[in-house]
Amino acid sequence: MSQLQSEQIEREALLRALSASDDRPWCFIPLRSASIQWQSGVFQKMWAFNTGTDANTIGTVKTPATTPSIEDLVTSAQAKTTITIGQHDWFVDSVVVLDNDGRPVGRLFRLTSPEAEADHAAKMLASYDAQRRLTALSPREAEILDLVYDGLTNKAIAARANISQKTVEKHRGRVTRKLRTSSLAELIRLVATARYADVVSQDATKPDDFE
Fold it and tell me: Hey, is 27 helix, strand or coil?
């Protein structure tokens, strides 16, 4: 492997990590292209949720007329208007990305929504608080809780953890007391809330059809 190839691999790995950890919605579209080359994890999730498809490229999927497309995103940025994604209206702006020689290579599209950002911030705070509460559990209790969250019965959990059902019940009882939850539904909601922050930052953000 040449030095140039090695540096390219390192740059792409860094871009993946930065994109996945960024909780702001954005995407990059190369010059003379109709495909998203890079995107933040947040953008990827909310765009796919809105369209119900893996809408990374134009023309690969057909979506209802009311669903925004990549063309709509570009138009909104040019006209400085909003675009509706999910339950919020987003302002779209874009900046030209230049290479080391000052030549344009594409555009970075950034989405902002005060309402959505406030909602996201509240969810992130709740998620961090839930994660803090879960630190009260021992590693074994956390393991049992994960299996409960996955929908396993006490019998299945016992087989998976190689312990008796009675031990599983004891662990679940301690989990309930430590987390101060009064029902299984409340326990599940707590875990789901705790995982929100992790879901936001996970997943590689480079589409498989990157050219």
Answer: strand
